[in-house]
Each structure stands twice: as structure tokens, then as C-alpha cells.
Amino acid sequence: MKRFAFTMLELVFVIIVVGIIAVLAMPNLSTNPLQQATEQIAGHIRYTQHLAMIDDKYNDKNSTWFSSNWQIWFRIYQGRYYYEVFSDQDQETNSDSNEEAIDPLTHKNLGNGSSGVGLPDNKDVNITGKFGITEMAFSANCKLGQGGKIAFDNLGRPYGDVSYDPNDRYYKYLTQPCIMKIKHGASDQNATLTIQPETGYVSVVYN
Length: 207
Fold this sequence. Notes:
CATH superfamily: minor pseudopilin epsh domain
Largest sheet: 5 strands, antiparallel
CATH architecture: 3-Layer(bab) Sandwich
Structural class: alpha+beta
Radius of gyration: 22 Å
Strand content: 15-25%
Distance between the termini: 68 Å
Shape: globular
Oligomer: single chain
């Protein structure tokens, strides 16, 4: 009866592979709050675009259908920045809890859960409270009040708002990049996040 065993080379190979997997699985203990915040924002902008592309809001029976396109709205309340990802189905300009996207990773609402302005229960989108972001500045084409907004149509094309003009199908359509400048107060570090017109491609530069 033959007996099978691992050779020394095979054992060494397995140990190396397990070691690589363990290193990749280890959490990054040297965290950078600005980088974490910016990458989360970039990811949720891409997620907003994805939702818009799979959930076409066109409705030829509603002349203001465009207002319900998926959007990500950066807002400020009591000096703190947060954002909401939602489709304004009732077209009342604010998000309701049932209109907000659900984060596929945490299963939490990406918003404040109410129709008004206010800090969200989901602390992940309170980017001042969680990451220490103290300033956000937006280029004119995506600036809204003290914050900013990016919306997407069913082809994934970015707009600076969901405002609708019946005489202009491409009202608020981005023809120039939307530029967001993000500052982390404690470290005085900055990041620039850019959303390209037409494609909605998101890129980040740290400075």
C-alpha cells in the first residue's frame, strides 16, 4: 500500500502562499483619514452612476422626470459636511429615507434618513465627524449653495444638478470637469477629486 506525503518543496510553497494571503488580509493600521474619506467619496460617486445606469428614470408622461435621476448631494449642517445618495422620486427636492440608496457593504442608508437637512444616523457619510474633513469646495458647474451636487442620467453622463428645463434636454450637463477640493483640518492635507464630463470618470490627486 502506497502512502502519499507532501514534499518539503510543496510545504514551503504552501507556507509562502499562506503568508502572502495573511499579509493581504491584514488591516492597514497606518490609516490616512483624508485618503479614506476621498476614496469613500469617489466610490460612492461611482455607485451613484451605477444606480443611474441600471435604473433609467425616463418617463414620457412626466415633463419633470429628470428631477428623479440618481444624485449625490454634498451638504453642510452645523459646520459638518455629509452627503446623500438618492433618487428624488416625489420630486420634493430633498431625500426621504425610502429614496436613499443602500450601501451594499454596510446595508445602511446613504443619507440622513429624513426629508430635511440634518446630520445622518449613518456616521459613514458624516465625513467631518468620521474623517475630520473641514472644508469642501466645488467648481461652479457642480456647486450648490455651500455644498455641491452630481447627478447622472441612464447613460452614466454627469450633470451638475437634477434641475430640468423642458427647452433644454441637457440643462446642467457637464461640459467641463467638476472639481472638488477636500481638506483635512488636523493634518492640513488636501485632495482634489475630479469628475470628467461625458464619461463621469473619477480621479483623485493628493497635494
